[in-house]
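Can you give me the bound-state structure? Components:
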Amino acid sequence: MTKRSIELTVNGRLRKATVPPRMLLSDFIRQELSLPGTHVGCEHGVCGSCNVVVNGQAVRSCLMFAVQAEGAEITTVEGLAQGDALHPIQQAFWEEHGLQCGFCTPGMLATAQELLAQNPDPSDDEIREAISGNLCRCTGYEFIISAIRSAAAKLREANTETTLQPV
Amino acid sequence: MKPSAFQYERPEDLQAALALLASGEDTRILAGGQSLVPMMNYRLAQPDVLVDINRLSELDYIKDDGDVIAIGALARHAAIKSSSLIQAHLPIIAEAYSWIAHAAVRNRGTLCGNLCHADAASEMPAIMQILEAEMVVSKVGSNRTVAARDFFVGVYETTIEADEILTEVRLPKPGAGTGWGFEEVAMRRGDYAWCTVVATLRLSDGRIAEPRIALAGVEDCATRLAAAETALKGQAPNASLFDDVAEAAAKATRPSASATSDAAYKRDLVRALLPRVLNDAVARST
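Here's the bound-state model for the whole set.
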C-alpha cells in the first residue's frame, strides 16, 4: 500500500522517513531509526517492554503505527543518558539491581519516567500500580520498586538543588 | 505478529471520516487502537482501509451539558479518569478506571472505542447501563441516539453499523444523594474481569429507590440485573435481604467460562460481591 512520509522528533533529533502504513512504531524505532533499545516482547500490548514516551506519555509502541507518530516527540531509552552520565532513573536501577536480564528495562524506565513526572513522591503502592502493565520475569519486581523509590528521591533532590541555586 | 497491509486515511474532520466510512470498502475506525491494533497484529482483524480519527480534535472533549456529561469519541481513558467533572458527578467511573488496563493503555485508549469493542470482560458497558447513558451514533447526513441497554448485543457485538461512528456518550448526572458501589475480581489489577458488579441507588425515607445493578465479565455481554432491582426496590437495606438477592442473582446468571475462571467460580463471585456493592452504595447515599 502507498507509503507515507513522516517527520517526528526522536530523542531531540528531527527524523524523516517514508514508511508503509502497517509498520508498527516499535519496528520503526528499532529498524528504521536503528534504536534497538526499545524491546519488542509480546507485540499485542500486554508486556510493556516496548513502552516509549510519546508527547510526555508512556505508550505501547507496538500498538501505534509509525504513521500516527507524525509530528510527535518521542523519547526512547537511548534518549535518557546525557553522554556517559546515566539518567537518575537509570542510575537508580543500576544501584538497586532493578534489572537482571534487562529485557523489560527500557519499558520500565519509560513507565517510571511518566510516573515520576506526574508524581514526584509516589508510595510503594502507587509504584506497584504504575508498573503493573510492565512484565518482568527476573527480578520479582521488588528491586524495581526500590529503584523507582530511589530514583524519585534523586530527582526530588536534583529539583531542590536547581530551585535553590542563586540567580 | 505484523498487521496485514491496509490503506491509511487520516481525515481532518468528522464529515470526511464519515464519507470514508460510507465508501462501501472494508473500513475500520482507528481511535486509541488498544484493542484494534492487537487484533490486527494477530491478523484477527484485516481491514482494507483504516480511518484514523486521532486528528479529529472536535471529538476530544468531556463537557458539562446541563443534566448530562458528554464525552466525545476521542476522549482518552486517562483524561476521563482525571477529569474533575467526572470525579465530581460520576465518581464510579473514576474508581472503575483504576481497575481498567494500565496507564500506558489508558493514555491512548478511548471510552467510545472501548464501548464499540464490547469485550464481555469490559467494565464500562456495565457502567453505561446503570448510568442509563445514551450513545450518539453518526453517519453521513444523520445522527441517531441509542440507549446503552440496546447498544450492546453480544460478545464484541453492538448495534453500530459499518458506516457509523459512536461520536458521543451522554451520561445523565445521577440525582442528588445517589450512592454507588463497584467491586471486581480479576487475576491481576488491570486484567480482564472475572466478575465486576456495579450498582447505584438512592435512599428515600430509609428505603431503596431506583436501584440499578449490572454485571460485567460474567456473561457474554454486560447485563442489568432486573430481578435483583425489583427485589430491592422499596425495601429497607439489610444484610439478609442483600444475601437473598445475591443468592438469587448468582443462580439466575448464565456465566460463560473462560480459560482462567470457570462458571461455578463466577457464580460464587456474584454471590460474594453483590452484597458488598450494595452496602457501599447504601453507605455512599445520603
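A couple of observations. The two ends of chain A are 56 Å apart (CA to CA). Chain A has two domains: 4-79, 88-164.
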